[in-house]
Amino acid sequence: MPFADMPTLQTAAPIAQAVPAEPRPFTWGDLLPSGVAEWFAVSQTLLPAMMFMPGSQAFRLPLRVGAYAVSLFALILWWFNRGGQRPARHPAERWLLWIGLYLVMMIAHPGTNSLLAGVAQMLLYVAIFCPVFWAPAYVQTPRQLARILVILLVCNGLNSIVGVLQVYDPARWMPPQLSSVYTGDALAAVTYLGPNGRVIIRPPGLFDTPGAVCAAGTVAVLLGLILAVEPIDWWKRMTALAFATAGISAIYLSHVRAAFMVTVGTLIVYLVLLGLQNEKRRATGFLSAAGALLAGGLAISIVLGGQSVEDRFLTLLGSDPGQVYYESRGVQLESAFSSLAVNYPFGAGLARWGMMRNYFGDAGTSEGGELFAEVQPNAWILDGGIPLLLLYSIALGLTAAYELKLIRDLADRNDRLLTAVVTAANLGTLALVFSFIPFGTAVGIQFWFFEGALCGAMANQLRRARTV
């Protein structure tokens, strides 16, 4: 089973020679995070959650930067503590290094907003992809990877539960600072009408941005549903199912159709990977549970959010999905290649869009005026033009191929299942490239953290013998 406490084979010795160690008695301390990787996973929810506290707006910048700074700190810790050593190298590493070098040169681009903002934008990219370098040093067994996935399920599940409660009882659970940040047209853009005409703000979860809970909801749905159908203690399955239900309900209540489609896509990918591994019984149970979860979550969301929730998501069935996508995000994706790539073939300069410009940029400069990007290809082209778009696309393509190769080559069934979990989650992030900017946010950090952890955990696991 993917999350089982499985023995780890550290050498390429025959399977018959592997002797599992005696299991250590359980203690309550086993439930607490330990080590750099596990605490890093917790920090990605804990630090943004601090913005949920009253009066936190005064510390908004350090808290938002903190989630990324922790990644850079882990990189420095790995370099000085482990001497830059790790059990394996990810195939995307060299391309990510080229990206980093290219962005350093882009600081000198005449369109870069300012030196400070340009350096900040470059460091943002490095903070997002650097876990693939340091995570293998701190995650070296499948059991460690499984623990990280469980920790992420708990963190994202709790985040999703808060999101549902923010619709159920906003006076108690909604961040108080939202009322001061979102007013007038800005507030209207993130609200909808619920039961009895009640105005509902799209739930932020343990963040302070409306709708931000969707990313946590997607992770909670996938990991929770996978664990819910595994042959483990019943209370663990029920807890996982509760997290998954909260995750899908939070997505419905956020009215974000792209997040819903990505979530369904991750479930389909995992189901296909189970089929490719001939896991028929597990696939049947997962498919049944997924159908019940999607229907049950919608029912709960309609009770809390009203008929507008159902109407919102029925547009995916009542209209041409391609047309729906084109009207919401496809137009922007089209502009990336018809306009931006033509006008800025080598980039418009760094910090021309997004939070690095808002926090560190010079609003008065005429050279580095503000531009906008709401899908990832647009952001890559603005930051580095066609070269950056190609470099990052190659890195992501190699990553997807690496995951699928691992599933094919790993000898142990549990290792393959665990790899399938990470693959499904990360392919969902790849789908977000066409409707969001995942590799400019903490979603990208999670992607590369998963990759680094998977690379380290499977580095010394047995591979299947290849026949000639």
Range of strand content: under 5%
Number of domains: 1
The number of helical segments is: 19
How much is the average pLDDT? Answer: 85
Low-confidence stretches: 5-21
The gyration radius over C-alpha positions equals 22 Å
Strand order of the largest sheet: 1-2
Question: Outline, from the CA principal axes?
Answer: globular
The percentage helix is 55-70%
Q: What structural class results from the helix and strand content?
A: mainly alpha
Written as H for each helix and E for each strand, in order along the chain, the element string is HHHHHHHHHEEHHHHHHHHHH
Number of strands: 2
Ends: how far apart? 30 Å
Largest sheet: 2 strands, antiparallel
Characteristics of this structure?
468 residues; mainly alpha; two-stranded antiparallel sheet; 19 helices; 66% helix; 1% strand; globular
Describe the protein:
With 468 residues, the chain is mainly α. The chain has helices at residues 35-49, 60-81, 93-106, 115-129, 131-138, 142-168, 170-173, 178-181, 184-188, 213-228, 234-254, 257-276, 280-305, 307-318, 321-343, 354-360, 376-409, 413-432, 442-457, and strands at residues 191-193, 199-201. The protein has one domain (35-457). It is 66% helix and 1% strand. Helix 10 runs antiparallel to helix 11 and helix 12 packs antiparallel against helix 13 (280-305). The longest helix is centred in the last third of the chain and has 34 residues, at 376-409. It is globular.
